[in-house]
Amino acid sequence: MPTAGRAAQLTDIWKSYGPVPVLKGVTLTLGIGEVHALLGGNGAGKSSLMKVMSGVIAANSGSVEINGQELATPSPAAAQKLGLYFVPQEAHIFPNQTVLENICLGLKRSARSMRARVEQLLEELSVSLDLDAEAAGLEIAERQIVEILRGMIRDARVLILDEPTSALTPFETRALFERVRNLQAQGVGIFFISHKLREIREICGTISVLRDGAIVLSGPLADFTDDEIVDAMSRVESAESEVTVPRTTGNISHVGRARLCVRNLSGEGFADIDMDVHAGEILGLAGVVGAGRTEFAETLFGLRPQSAGSVTLEGEDFPSRSPRRSIDRGLVYLPEDRQQHGLFLEAPLFWNASSYLIHRLPFFLRAARERLSFDRFRSDMGIVCTGPGQEAKGLSGGNQQKVLMAKCLSAKPKVLIMDEPTRGVDVAARNDIYALIRELAATGVAIVLISSDFDEIETLADRVQVMAFGKHAGEIDSDIAVDAIARMAFGAEENAHA
Q1: For 91-139, what is each residue's pLDDT tens digit?
Q2: Coil, helix or strand for 168?
Q3: Measured over all CA atoms, what is the biggest interatomic distance in the chain, rounded to whole angstroms?
């Protein structure tokens, strides 16, 4: 039986990798039906702590208790058996299997025999998913729901949600929070890892902040101001909602000639899109998930075929595109999913940073040049790593994103398409990336900024285009504001369903 009022307990957790301590006597309590926020900068120890709790790694000392029982022999299977499930930021999906098969993955019973239970959970969480569809077609938000359902089908009483809203629009976030509240009402305890203070205040009742492997602040969320929380996190001076990069006014008088011209472009998931992006301009491309923004970006870059329309780059027609041709012409793409489509996780950092240019580097000088190039990016961008030979999988999310940006910058872009560039990074890393985007624009790079974070669009964009259901839904040239973007994005959605 679970201890009354307590879903999980971590007591005096210590963990070191070699001589380097990453967790220093961490003690945390998660109540039954409690949503407990866990914050910390990149490298603070959040990932290591949750891996210890979920049985992925063993602590050097300390104890983990789940539903009143000790996790004596750490393993993910043992933690799940005790009632804990870890929902990662990057959902693990098998694309060629059905949604139902993905949800029931690893269970002793067949997916078919579990269908009624899954349908019941869908109803309880107010979720609509086609269980018979191939999982390859799922949006990122839907993949996260699949991970949550994997936990629920295993009767999890403790959930760890790692940056669950990082790729969600405000509308999708609200829907997720309703599902979290449903779980909370059922007595499920939830660790909620996020960097978005406004969302934390909306859904969490308790907070703990990690810094340098130790708890430096913990207690009822209402007891702490945003400034106190941010100061405890990293000693940076501004919260997520108060980014140090100044907001743009939408004045684009500083930009140069059009570098990218798109006319009536159509492809899988979108149709008849017009777009002009000028040298030195940051064009925000906003919309909800499913609006066709990523499909549009991938088609521009040459990852998908176009069915109609034309593209002009630097005044010259660009009808037949492939990633290599686009890179050679100066059109570069930073993908949304850094782990699946951006980085080679088991390859060294220097190789990742130059991977867009492999076809240009002479074989015998490649490694030396790549290492020198990475060292420059490492210094300029503040990439925290052990060296250029470290594997990308060993970095925090924020540092992985910086390496992905280094990969794009190594190609010397004239037009840079950035798809959710700050997804899953902490406050400090987000500020670094914002500053870098501004610096790139100041040097004349034309930037297409795709983001589901409307605050981010408002902060950075000189001009905004909005897409909905694969179509152009509106444009904002001045007085850029979150409310105006949302009205266009969600207004178009409501009209489509009217």
Answers
A1: 788 989 999 999 998 888 899 999 999 998 888 777 788 999 999 988 7
A2: coil
A3: 71
Give the dihedral of Cα atoms 337, 175, 110, 74; nearest 10 deg: 70
CB-side exposure of 18: number of CA atoms within 13 Å? 1
Q: Which residue has the tokens 């963990």?
A: 15
What is the β-pairing status of strands 158-162 and 35-39? unpaired
Structure tokens at 480: 């850029």
Q: Looking up tokens 């280094």, which residue turns up?
A: 406
Distance CA 149, CA 242 (A): 34
Superfamily covering domain 258-497: P-loop containing nucleotide triphosphate hydrolases (3.40.50.300)
Q: In what order do the strands lie in the sheet with 61-66?
A: 20-31, 6-17, 61-66, 69-70
Rounded to the nearest 10 degrees, the angle between the axes of helix 366-381 and helix 397-410 is 120
Query: Tokens standing for 280?
Result: 């030195």
Domain 6-234 sits in which CATH superfamily? P-loop containing nucleotide triphosphate hydrolases (3.40.50.300)
- Asked if the model's pLDDT at residue 397 lies above 70, the reply is yes
Which residue is associated with the tokens 């403790």? 158
Domain with CATH 3.40.50.300 in the chain: 6-234, 258-497
Output the CA–CA distances (angstroms, integers) from residue 259 to 140, 316, 445, 449, in the order listed: 31, 10, 9, 15
Residue in 202, 190, 203, 200 with CA at minimum distance from that of residue 230: 200
Q: What pLDDT shows up at residue 167?
A: 63
Spatial neighbors of 289 by CB under 8 A, at least 6 apart, are 139, 140, 141, 167, 168, 169, 172, 452
How many other C-beta atoms are found inside a 10 Å radius of the C-beta of residue 436? 17
Three-state DSSP class for 363?
A: helix
Which tokens is 134 given?
């191939």
User: Residue 324 — pLDDT band, cuts 50, 70, 90?
Assistant: very high
Q: What is the DSSP letter of 2?
A: P
State the burial class of residue 212 (Cβ atoms within 10 Å of its Cβ: 0-12, 13-18, 19+).
middle
pLDDT one-digit tens code per residue, 180-211: 898 899 899 999 988 778 889 999 999 999 98
